[in-house]
Amino acid sequence: MPEWLGRVKIKHLLTEKDDWESVQTSMTQIAGILERRKAFSGFDVLPFRSIPKGDTVFGPADYANRYLASMYDFADSHRIWIE
User: Which of 1, 5, 23, 74 has its CA 20 to 30 A from that of 55?
Assistant: First the structure.
């Protein structure tokens, strides 16, 4: 079992809604938490603060999911537990 070097609580900020406003609010709040955590100092949260509105094929939730995937990849490679 890996030894985690840090923990970050953000899952309570995730939204199940897929409209741009809900997604943007959620991602902005997550960015604020990540910016305050030393463990994420090398992670670029700028995309979290400007989620594209998208179109009928690729919407704001799709963009957010890509950014969240990069956050999870960063966390895994830096042994950060996300809860």
Answer: 74
* Helix (H), strand (E) counts: the chain: 2, 2
The pTM of the full predicted model, rounded to 2 decimals, is: 0.92
Q: How many CB atoms lie within 10 A of CB 48?
A: 24
> Does residue 29 sit within a domain?
yes
For residue 32, is it within any domain?
A: yes
Cβ-contact 11, 32 below 8 angstroms:
no
Number of separate domains in the chain: 1
Tokens 């992670």 sit on residue: 43
The pLDDT tens digits for 6-62 are 899 999 999 999 999 999 999 999 999 999 999 999 999 999 999 999 888 999 999
Residue 48 structural domain: 6-82
Locate all alpha helices (DSSP H) within 1-83, ordered by sequence: 20-36, 60-77
